[in-house]
Specification:
The strands form four sheets. Strands 1, 2, 3, 4, 5, 6 and 7 form a seven-stranded mixed sheet that branches. This protein has a five-stranded mixed sheet with strand order 13-12-11-10-19, with no helix packed on it. The protein has a five-stranded mixed sheet with strand order 14-15-16-17-18. The protein is globular, with a radius of gyration of 29 Å. By secondary structure, it is α/β, with parallel strands linked by helices. Helices cover 54% and strands 15% of the residues.
Length: 675
């Protein structure tokens, strides 16, 4: 049976398209439910027509897909907390001045140098019932942190919206949080908060307590902290305390997926449980016992690991795989994957925009679909060669399937990924089995010293292997420009070429060649589009001035400090615009861009009063009387970069308001772009 002949495939695709339309087009709730009502009426009408005529009516299939599409639109809107009238985002006063907030801690996040960080659920504001998720930042001090998941906290503070990215092509943290339905953060000190004696004991509380108990027993067993943090990531998906240099090694070696609990880890756990249950006969009763044991074990693992989204996704996915095996439908793995996708997105539609969700399902799909094709290229004879070849083909299948998406999001490619996967799989297999045993024992008591030592040393060896591969930094290709055109066209090439290898015929060869031509056209179009572009950007850079002028793919950079001209601020822009810095100059007092005349005044406060500029850029906190200056030169626009002090910018803003001149402060509004 062809995969696309399965009705759920078309329904799932329609459902996903509905989610995408809802996400990018932002329809109102009334429009969405009107579409749902109309599609429901059509569905009912064509259903009864098909039933009466006792034959297939094409319009019934169309109406089924239409109702799936409209459900996708509505599901996303229903799960968008900003549409909830009781969500704190509608209480604007809480963003302007301090109010008493009561919230319950839900999840521990990775701490930074200054704060311990949590996600929390708002209970009320000033005794008014409110709800919604926030991020809580508790300032670190000399006292120990006694907060636990489930604590109900009361504090008087101001809600702060997370600002969008303030430089071009940078990661937009505010958008990332909004996709998780988090619209604000609070910052507080330990002395300012009041912890209720009552603790909300829900599943997250017990999950947190279980995780804390495991951590406590591992510490009592003298587990080396560095290896223990990696162990917690490998087995439980807790990455909060891993050192930055270790994360960098895993990134450069192409093994980042190992630190994030995903299908790989849950798959190991499922195989381990199936191995233990192997003596049970495959009768109807025995099969039911196996399925129940697997589902309970996977659910238990999700609770122990803290119910993180990545773990829940993988647990749901493999639960459906287990159910498919129980029903003797293991051959239809694609259908099993689709059912798990549909179920997950029905309850959490915003997962569709999560990078981990996209990479997990793409990797698994290509392993199932592409790996058999790669495996047929060569048939090894001995067991070692078979193992190496299988590991290599699985690694290549997953990497090929996720390559375009990784380039699109991360703009880098670890060239030695296949070496990493081959050498770490045996060690990782042992670590997963030993880790599960150690963690299970740690729930009840201190694990035996011998077992802990073996587990710790195996992680030490894994880290050393990863570090060795990562040390070949020349194999890590970074700063790869990759846009949406490349993403779509490259996936078309991969899919059509793979189909051509599986079922070669004249038509598919033509389609494959056309997809390759389309990819080449996307390269040509991007280059042509960039060659016609010119833009000037004033960056938001603290304590320094950065201005770039781009013509095509060549950038002239103007700065007050040439030694610091490169960094994350510029890298993201260079990669996103496929550009390079052709020359770097000390910033001048005047610039000309297209027909615009730009005057720049720095800390010296010196300027040519005969110039009548279109734009005035103020940098390095110059001491001047802006009111008098505006009367002299009459600019159309004023820009203040982040090198100016905040107090001076407030005075300038008031002066511009009096004169009705637009004022753009990069520290407040982000970078300024002039086309």
């Amino acid at each position: 049976m062809k995969v696309l002949d399965f009705p759920l495939v078309k329904l799932t695709i329609s459902f996903i398209i509905g989610i995408l339309i809802s996400y990018y087009c932002h329809p109102s709730l009334s429009i969405a439910f009107n579409i749902l009502g109309f599609s429901t009426l059509l569905f009912i009408l064509f259903y009864f027509l098909a039933k009466r005529n006792k034959k297939h009516i094409p319009l019934f299939g169309i109406s089924s897909n239409l109702i799936a599409f409209s459900i996708g639109i509505c599901v996303l809107l229903i799960h968008t907390d900003s549409f909830d009238k009781l969500n704190y985002s509608h209480f604007q006063k809480a963003f302007d001045e301090p109010h008493v907030l009561t919230f319950t801690l839900r999840e521990k996040l990775k701490s930074n140098d200054y704060n311990d960080r949590y996600t929390a659920i708002v209970n009320n504001i000033d005794q008014h019932f409110m709800r919604g998720k926030i991020i809580v930042n508790v300032q670190k001090d000399s006292t120990s942190n006694s907060l636990i998941i489930g604590n109900i906290i009361r504090v008087k503070t101001v809600l702060q919206r997370t600002p969008p990215s303030k430089n071009p092509n940078q990661f937009d943290y505010s958008r990332y949080l909004a996709d998780k339905q988090i619209y604000a953060q609070v910052f507080c000190k330990k002395s300012e908060i009041t912890i209720s004696k009552h603790i909300k004991k829900d599943i997250w509380y017990y999950s947190g307590r279980l995780h804390a108990l495991i951590l406590k027993n591992l510490e009592k067993s003298n587990f080396n902290p560095e290896e223990m943090n990696v162990a917690l990531a490998l087995i439980l998906g807790q990455q909060q305390e891993i050192a930055a240099d270790i994360i960098k090694d895993y990134q450069y070696s192409g093994a980042t997926h190992v630190l994030s609990v995903s299908g790989l880890h849950v798959g190991f756990i499922m195989l381990f449980i199936m191995f233990i249950l192997k003596p049970i006969p495959n009768t109807r009763k025995g099969s039911a016992i196996k399925l129940t044991s697997i589902l309970i074990s996977l659910a238990g693992f999700a609770v122990i690991s803290g119910l993180s989204p990545s773990v829940l996704r993988s647990v749901v996915m493999f639960s459906f795989v287990a159910i498919g095996n129980h029903l003797r439908r293991s051959g239809n793995i694609y259908h099993t994957l689709l059912v798990s996708i549909l179920l997950i997105l029905l309850f959490e539609p915003y997962f569709l925009f999560d990078v981990g969700f996209q990479l997990s399902y793409l990797a698994l799909f290509f392993i199932v679909w592409l790996q058999p094709v790669l495996a047929q290229i060569w048939t090894p004879k001995n067991k070692i060669a078979i193992y190496l070849w299988n590991a290599l083909t699985v690694s290549f299948a997953a990497q090929i399937g996720t390559l375009p998406l990784c380039l699109y999001y991360f703009h880098q490619f670890p060239g030695l990924f296949f070496v990493t996967n081959i050498i770490i799989l045996p060690v990782l297999s042992f670590i997963m089995i030993a880790g599960i045993i150690v963690m299970l024992i740690a729930i009840f008591t201190n694990p035996p010293l011998l077992l802990v030592t073996i587990f710790e040393k195996s992680i030490f060896i894994l880290n050393k292997m990863i570090h060795y591969v990562a040390s070949f930094e020349s194999f890590v290709i970074q700063d790869i420009g990759f846009n949406f055109y490349y993403l779509i066209s490259l996936y078309l090439v991969i899919i059509t070429v793979t189909i051509g290898f599986k079922k070669p015929n004249f038509r598919i060869i033509i389609v494959s060649l056309l997809s390759i031509i389309l990819f080449q056209l996307s390269l040509i179009y991007t280059k042509k589009e960039l060659s016609d572009q010119t833009e000037l950007i004033v960056y938001n850079a603290k304590k320094r001035t950065l201005i770039s002028m781009r013509k095509g793919q060549n950038i002239t950079l103007f700065t007050n400090d040439i030694k610091k001209e490169k960094g994350n601020i510029l890298n993201s822009y260079l990669v996103g615009s496929f550009s390079t810095i052709s020359q770097t100059k000390i910033v001048k007092n005047t610039l000309y861009f297209n027909t615009q005349k730009i005057l720049i005044i720095d800390s010296s406060g010196v300027y040519e009063n005969k110039i009548v500029p279109d734009i005035l850029i103020l940098t390095q906190s110059p001491k001047l009387n802006l009111d008098r200056l505006l009367n002299q030169i009459h600019p159309k626009m004023i820009i203040a970069d982040a090198s100016n002090s905040y107090s001076i910018q407030k005075v300038w803003k008031e002066s511009c308001l009096k004169k009705n001149i637009p004022f753009h402060a990069t520290a407040e509004k982000g970078f300024y772009k002039l086309n």
